[in-house]
Amino acid sequence: MNGVIKKLCWIVLAGSLLTVSAVQAKLTLENSLDRIVAVVNDEVITALELKAEMGLIKKQLSQQNARLPSDAILEKQLLDRMILRRIQLQMAKRGSIRVDDDMLNRTLENIAAQNRMNLSQFRTALQSEDINFESFRENMRDEITVNRLQQRQVHSRIVVTQQEIDNFINNQKLRGGEDKEYHLGHILISVPEAANAQEIKNARAKAEKIVQELRANADFVQTAISLSDGQQALEGGDLGWRRADALPSLFADWVVQQDVNNVSDAMRSPSGFHIIKMLGIRDNQPQHMITQTHARHILIKPFDETESSDARIRLENIRERIIAGEDFAALAKAHSDDPGSGTEGGELGWVNPGEMVPGFEQGMDALAVGELSDPVRSRFGWHLIQVLERRKQNVTEQVKNKNARDAIRARKLDPAMQAWIRRIRDEAFVENRL
To answer: How many CB atoms lie within 10 A of CB 252?
Structure first.
């Protein structure tokens, strides 16, 4: 299977709770040998569900050549993840967060298209890896649902002010130096919110012992899988590539002074004790010059798919009239179904890369200045596009502002997400019977 697909499949399947089909669920309930391993509010997680997840995560870790911890440790980590996912899905249900079939199908079609396949080919590719398509589909629904919940509960509540952005940029100027990105591994030894002095002491001792073992060349991935309480534990604690300014201050101050393979001391935060390993360092020097296109268009929007060919024919007739000398702007005002640009003679102004939907942008980018397109299809309908001008534009200041805003949001997001997850876990009724 295509490597991108494989990675995505494991993210969805190993990162979310397996949804058991109606028939399978019925058989599960009727099977007296299938014991309950956890109670989450008014729902249960069964041994069969945990076993199914175990099979998937073992296959994933084996393909990554990661050393597997014992089944007992893996079960504990995996059940904790399943419990947290179940809590979030329950919250989403109470909050009326739903992902309908149309949205789910569009998401799957987009994933297939990114891998140069149609949906049928994508389904076949999954099955060739022994991945049940219906389970994958429902897990994707859960993944989107949880992402929406987190967006509502955490992401949307993070505010970044212009003053923060200005201060951030000024501090960067004072610090100087090259833009760099850091590949980090992370292990968290959590501390309960109302922990007493002995619990904190025990957690600190455990973290310091892990630091000693890692500095003595213990395998970081296996240690994270076995011992970390962090969200990325089953991914070997991999945080991916981050700019230092996008990290919590607790990590950032350490990161900028380190070499590859260095392991931090145990660092205390409200969530517990954090251990960071420097996995890699690379330069990050983004381009700040873009090509902007000044374009205009006429949109004919079919009522449904059966009218699509008629819409295209109408647009072809309009194209012939423009070629014959009629005014583009006048025809746009008379015929375009785009309420925004139609009244302006089809004017779109200066367009940045990525602003338009893919079909439109591909058609526009293929045109020379002054050229009039053939009818171009997008999800909005059929377009007639004319490119009026192109220019190179220096957007360094806009990029700096955007990067600063994103970095500040990312810095605030990590602790906010950890605090939210700990709170919803503490507020839920959970009985772990493993």
So the answer is: 17
CATH classification for the domain delimited by 157-286+398-427, as one of 3.40.50.740, 3.40.630.30, 3.10.50.40, 3.20.20.390: 3.10.50.40
Q: How far apart are CA 212 and CA 215, in angstroms?
A: 5
Task: Give the separation between CA 15 and CA 5, rounded to whole angstroms.
Answer: 15
Going across the sheet that includes 376-378, the strands are: 347-351, 289-300, 381-394, 376-378
Number of H helices, E strands in the chain: 16, 11
Q: Quick one: 257 exposed, middle or buried, by C-beta within 10 A (0-12, 13-18, 19+)?
A: exposed
3-state SS assignment for residue 280: strand
pLDDT in tens, 259-310: 899 999 999 988 899 999 999 988 766 657 889 999 999 999 987 766 788 8
CA neighbours closer than 13 Å in the CB half-sphere of residue 59: 16
- Tell me what pLDDT residue 22 has: 36
* pLDDT, averaged across the chain: 85
Residue with tokens 């007739």: 317
Query: Is the model's pLDDT at 9 over the cut of 60?
Result: no
pLDDT digits (tens, 9 = 90+) for 324-357: 999 999 999 999 999 889 899 999 999 999 889 8
Fold of 289-394: Chitinase A; domain 3 (3.10.50)
The residue-averaged pLDDT of 165-171 equals 84
Q: Which residues pair with 190 in a beta bridge?
A: 272
Q: Across the strands, what pairs with 180?
A: 283
**Would the pLDDT of 10 be above 60?**
no
Helices (H), ranges, 64-196:
71-94, 101-114, 119-128, 133-153, 162-175
CA-based nearest residue to 57, from 230, 183, 236, 228: 236
**What pTM value is reported for the model?**
0.58
Structure tokens at 308: 């699509």
C-alpha 146/C-alpha 47 separation (Å) is 23
Of 53, 47, 41, give the one whose Cα is nearest residue 78.
Answer: 53
Count the Cβ atoms, other than its own, within 10 Å of residue 175.
10
Residue 258: HSE in the Cβ half-sphere, 13 Å Cα cutoff: 22
